[in-house]
Amino acid sequence: MTKGLSLEFVPLTRDLLQAYDEFNARLHRTAIVGVPNRDRDGGVPAPMEAERYVGVDGGGEVRGAYLLRWQSLWLRGKQVRGAALGLPISEGIVNKRYAMVGVSVLRDAVKRCEDQYVLGGGGRDGNVFRIARHTGWQIADVPFLFRVFKGRNFLRKLPQMQHRVGRILTGFAGNTGLAQLATDLLQAGSALSHGGSFSLRQSSAVTVEEVRSLAEAAEEVWPRVKSQYTFCVVRDGAHVEPAFPPGRPDLRRLVVRFGGSIVGWTVVMTESMSRLKAFLGDVTPGLIVDAFGDTSHATEIVRAATLYLASQGVDVVMTNASHQHWLSAYKKAGFLSWRSQFPLIVSQSLARRIGDLPLTLPESHVSRGDGDGVHYLH
Q: What CATH number labels 7-141?
């Protein structure tokens, strides 16, 4: 129930698809495709199974919606049933009459799963951030990192540099070659100051293999390394396979070995990133979606992902990461940090389990592959 409006949240079923499509059209979200929930007859949802719920008014019109992506969370040595809240949306963004529907969306989601989180959610300027903060959810930013490979392209094509002063500066830097020199010096300085190297050259003990499925590697790595993390989404084969489905050819999956043994894996992409490219204009990005494994080999895994993307001719490699050892590995590889627009937002119940979220985040593994992950990017 929302103020002055009777609203019932129900699973998205086939008979509600037309109302759901009309709702999306009113919000100018015609690219969102409704998929009815699987009838699991009270059974436990499969790892990473997505279920959609809609808020229906007395006239049968959909006024709000959200998605729960069910998953097991690893928290202080135990597994907890949780979910990532994805695509929470209210008609209130186009019609003030439904301004309180957004709050109702979060309340209903929590009734279905107390221990849940939102990742990104439109950043700190988004409606999700505002409503979550208002309702007492805990929030911490997941650090953003990037490494530029084509300084001239990056500066000349970045939309944020298209104002008059920016065009003068980037034109001068690009024409004189200063852009590449400046970015290389900054990134080399970052690598050296963190005890690393600007070069991405790997030890002869490191081998990298591109694979179609990460299930086998994940099954081998997860039991050995899970104790190194205080909080993360479980990364066994049952979770990793549907998170990065083999049917997605835009995802590149790399297995990293050291001395012949698998020490970790990474997922990268250069395609299907229309949401990111909306901010980057004509800059060609490469994204490290996830890099996971033994933290003592984080540097080798990060370098493998970065080198692969560099070989694809991208202008810049970007990622978000939280764990202190992974942040160190990125900086050792010449990555720079910038203000993050990628908050982790956790429900009150999950926040109580985690404790102080900003203090726990450096011991936690959160990446672009979490939340609605690669499903959100395109």
A: 3.40.630.30
